[in-house]
Structures are given as structure tokens and as C-alpha cells.
Amino acid sequence: MKQREKIIPMAYGKILEIGIGSGLNLPYYDKEKVREVVGLDPSIEIWEKNIINPDDLPFNFQFVKASAEDIPLDNNKFDCIVVTYSICTIPVLPMAFEEFRRVLKPNGELIFCEHGKAPEKSIERWQNLINPVWKRLGGGCNLNRDIPALININGFTIDHLDTMYIPGWKPASFNYWGSAKVN
Fold this sequence. Notes:
25% of the residues lie in helices and 32% in strands. The protein contains 5 helices and 7 strands, in the order αββαββαβααββ.
């Protein structure tokens, strides 16, 4: 997916990837800028479907089974948090963002790529109508979250933001990507 190619190379240093899933982002990290990636996900079953051998990565890697709302890692540990297509599924966002702020170093950065609320009212109405069923069928995924607003109201300031529809079904394809710093 082209979005991953755009966003993942921005990450640097010690990185916490939220919702690593099966490791789709791992090939896109810049080996010259990355020392370590800790992949966090509540599902070990999805992680075990990965096709990448972590021992072959050009940086240190560790998988941690945990939710974004309760990260079992030290304070001020990471230079970056990377989150791609996971903010839509996190059940208690204020708790997750509190944890993000806790584990980031003081000048740390949140790098994100998410789908969410469309800018067109007609598409947004469809998102709102479909969301309850979509959420049940899609493992908690919400179509209609206002990603920039959620980042901003949860203690971050967006430095850079790009948006566009990616190819696909319009109610599920409006994307936001960029970076943010802790307030």
C-alpha cells in the first residue's frame, strides 16, 4: 500500500509501533534511521501470521502483546510512535493517547496514517449510517472518526497533515497521514 511507503520512512530512533498486526510496515522502515522497533498488538494470533522473520531485520525488534490503553513499557522510552490504521479500532482513545504521551520522549513524535471521517457531507452521512454494522463486522474499526480532531484533543499538535481518498470504496477510503508532537 502506497500510504505505508509514504509514512513509515519518517520514523527514527527507538520506535513503538501501535497495532503492528502482521508486520506490514516492517519493510518500509529506513534502516539508516532506526535502532529498534517494538511492535505492540493485542493479538498474538495476527502477529503470528507475519511473513517477515524478525531476526532478518536490520534493526532490533521486539513484539509485545498488549493494548494501546495499557502499554507495559517505561516512561520516556521512544523517539517515535507509529500508528497506521489502528486509531480507528482503539476502544478508549483518551487512555491510549495518555499512554502515547507517557512512553514518548519529551521531543518525541507521533507518526500516523489512518482512514476516517470524509470531508464530503454525503459520504460522511454514509459513514455514520454504516458505522455500527461495519464496527461489528470489522473488528471494532470505525469509519467515521475525525482523526485530526482526536489527535489534537488528546494532547498532541499536528505538525504536518496530508489527506486524500485512496482507491477504493469512498466511505472507507478517506486517509489522513502526517506527524504530531506532544503539547
